[in-house]
Write a sequence for this structure.
């Protein structure tokens, strides 16, 4: 894999600047999302984007920075989500339940990641990919079978702390009514959104710090030339296992955040293989090996998931008299087109949007 | 695992085991242990036959994957697409030839089955050619992109199956001569299982002959060993690659067709479900070797059936546990192609 020159390199190209500006714009838009787009669906989309940015970035630390292909990332996401869900259901809505659920999810993620890593990170990348795929599928089956604990296919619904309830009044005016700022009710929903935003922002900063630190440089060295990294004296297996555990923990925390936001956890929202495919698509479309790529990929794909399908649906309806067009544009077929775009991107723009953009202006 | 406990034991015992066949004895050891645990001979025989039949069908699906990896160093995550396509093509042909299937003539019945399998194989050959030339060829020697590209191809292929056959389950008609069972004493053995076992065995023997006794096989094995040397000697190894890829895909399609007849109810999720098992088979057997794949497939088939009978709750995790146990004992699988 060839990679973009690091975005943090002293010589800034205008492309790299554009990428960073885009990411800043996304961050600002997400920060003011509840005020800018005032309907329930938009805030749903914004929260999903926040969580997926973290999830995809943590996957990028694995695949883009270290060159490890894992198919078990949703498994860790699911550990965090189910940990919070089960704790919230059994202990009732409270911060102690969230803390316990999140930490149990993290511990399970670390243990499983360390076990898989030590067992199989010594072998070829391909072997590792297969083993993670097998492990993830076993966890998926277990989650749907152990229905007393996980709620099976139906999943678990639960209550979150009272601050996050839509009916909760965060700011009250003199008449006991919820205060409105720019027409937005300052209620629990808003608190929940800003909880999601702040925790995702913090997690993203932690990851940025990691890849910018000396450890991040070692990880890139391992990606570029494993034997040489080993020869210089870095213990490749230890670093790989560490980064696998690290990204597992971040994914698990992202799962917890998403579980708190959704107030529901089930195989479809936390464990299914489609989420894994989504993550893969986001990483590749956004650009591997740049944290910024994760942001761009996640934003584009979540937007596409929510709005492109509607668009395709209405296009299919509009073209109902044209032969073949309705079938081709049917909303159910959108994954088909995404798959084709994905293949073309891997062929022609292996660096993804962020990497390709960052290269612009480099030669001029 | 009978042998793990004995490993620390005396050297002569080890060499005797080695002379008797080494790891090849593993399925027999598993069968003997299961016989003791199950107790009832009749159910043991039924389970063993079911396990062998399942193993042979898994072998059909997995051998192509292993062969392609061994020769080309390409791991095709889209392999399962050929399994599902094979299943659906065969089912459609069988449904189309319903008249022949329903006829009271053995010849017409057999002809219908033959046509279905032939259609699946032909589809596998054509699809394999397309896959290799269009999708895989640009990304030789780049594992990361290979995994991504074949994964993308899998998404597209699954969507195509959904578009062509719809999302609802499809019933697969089975000809009269492959239904029912044979009674041996008090043991009933399903005819289809015997058929599956024999077909798998035939394919294994043919593959063995092709790889070890023919000139083509010599070239393939040489290509596995040292690709550049074979090229330097003037052989068109890229054509060989395409051929092996087509063969592997056709085998997967045949395996899918067999599986469709075995399950009699297929859904588009079939390929994804089988993929995990196929991966486990290939990992257990050791990537790149046909013998290893056969061994791994039979182990998985037997263990899945025995565990399903003895401890149904464990059945789901049995494949995974088997894989972990074997990987801890032999990190490269039981019989890897290149040691």
């Amino acid at each position: 894999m060839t990679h973009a020159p690091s975005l943090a390199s002293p010589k800034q190209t205008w492309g790299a600047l554009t990428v960073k500006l885009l990411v800043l714009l996304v961050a600002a838009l997400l920060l003011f999302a509840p005020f800018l787009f005032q309907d329930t669906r938009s805030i749903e989309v914004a929260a999903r984007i926040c969580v997926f940015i973290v999830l995809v970035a943590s996957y990028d630390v694995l695949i883009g920075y270290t060159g490890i292909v894992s198919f078990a990332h949703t498994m860790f996401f699911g550990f965090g989500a189910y940990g919070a869900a089960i704790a919230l259901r059994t202990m009732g809505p409270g911060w102690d339940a969230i803390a316990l659920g999140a930490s149990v999810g993290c511990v399970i993620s670390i243990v499983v990641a360390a076990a898989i890593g030590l067992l199989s990170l010594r072998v070829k990348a391909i072997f590792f990919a297969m083993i993670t795929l097998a492990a993830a599928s076993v966890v998926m089956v277990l989650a749907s079978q152990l229905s007393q604990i996980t709620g099976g296919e139906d999943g678990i619904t639960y209550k979150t702390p009272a601050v996050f309830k839509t009916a909760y009044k965060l700011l009250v005016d003199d008449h006991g009514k919820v205060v409105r700022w720019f027409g937005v009710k300052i209620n629990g929903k808003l608190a929940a959104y800003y909880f999601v935003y702040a925790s995702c922002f913090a997690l993203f900063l932690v990851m940025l710090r990691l890849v910018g630190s000396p450890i991040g440089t070692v990880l890139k060295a391992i990606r570029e030339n494993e034997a040489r990294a080993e020869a210089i004296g870095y213990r490749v297996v230890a670093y790989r296992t560490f980064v696998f555990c690290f990204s597992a923990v971040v994914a698990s925390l992202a799962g917890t955040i998403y579980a708190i936001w959704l107030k529901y956890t089930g195989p479809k929202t936390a464990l299914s293989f489609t989420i894994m495919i989504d993550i893969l698509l986001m990483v590749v479309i956004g650009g591997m090996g740049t944290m910024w790529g994760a942001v761009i990929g996640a934003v584009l794909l979540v937007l596409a998931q929510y709005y492109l399908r509607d668009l395709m649906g209405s296009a299919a309806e509009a073209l109902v008299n044209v032969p073949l067009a309705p079938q081709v544009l049917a909303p159910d077929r959108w994954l088909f087109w995404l798959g084709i775009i994905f293949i073309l991107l891997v062929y022609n723009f292996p660096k993804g949007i962020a990497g390709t953009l960052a290269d612009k202006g480099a030669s001029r | 695992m009978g042998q793990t406990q004995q490993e620390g034991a005396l050297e002569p015992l080890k060499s005797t085991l080695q002379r008797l066949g080494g790891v090849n004895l593993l399925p027999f050891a598993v069968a003997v242990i299961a016989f003791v645990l199950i107790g009832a001979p009749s159910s043991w025989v039924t389970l063993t036959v079911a396990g062998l039949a399942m193993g042979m069908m898994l072998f059909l699906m997995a051998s192509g994957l292993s062969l392609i990896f061994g020769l080309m160093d390409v791991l095709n995550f889209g392999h399962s697409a050929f399994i599902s396509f094979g299943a659906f093509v065969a089912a459609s042909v069988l449904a189309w030839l319903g008249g022949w299937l329903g006829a009271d003539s053995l010849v017409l019945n057999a002809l219908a089955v033959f046509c279905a399998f032939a259609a699946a194989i032909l589809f596998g050959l054509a699809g394999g050619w397309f896959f290799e030339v269009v999708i895989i060829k640009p990304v030789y020697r780049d594992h990361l992109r290979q995994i991504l590209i074949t994964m993308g191809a899998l998404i597209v292929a699954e969507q195509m199956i959904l578009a062509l056959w719809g999302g609802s389950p499809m019933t697969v008609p089975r000809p009269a001569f492959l239904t029912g069972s044979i009674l041996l004493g008090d043991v009933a053995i399903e005819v289809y299982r015997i058929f599956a076992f024999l077909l798998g065995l035939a394919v294994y023997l043919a593959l063995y002959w092709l790889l070890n006794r023919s000139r083509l096989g010599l070239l393939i094995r040489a290509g596995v060993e040292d690709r550049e040397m074979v090229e330097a000697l003037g052989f068109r190894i890229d054509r060989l690659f395409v051929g092996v890829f087509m063969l592997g895909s056709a085998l997967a399609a045949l395996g899918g067709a067999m599986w469709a007849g075995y399950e009699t109810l297929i859904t588009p999720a079939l390929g994804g479900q089988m993929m995990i098992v196929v991966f486990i088979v290939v990992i257990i057997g050791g990537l790149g070797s046909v013998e290893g794949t056969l061994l791994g497939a039979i182990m998985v088939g037997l263990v899945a059936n025995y565990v399903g009978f003895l401890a149904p709750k464990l059945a789901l995790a049995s494949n995974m546990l088997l894989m972990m146990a074997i990987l801890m004992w032999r990190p490269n699988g039981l019989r890897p192609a290149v040691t």
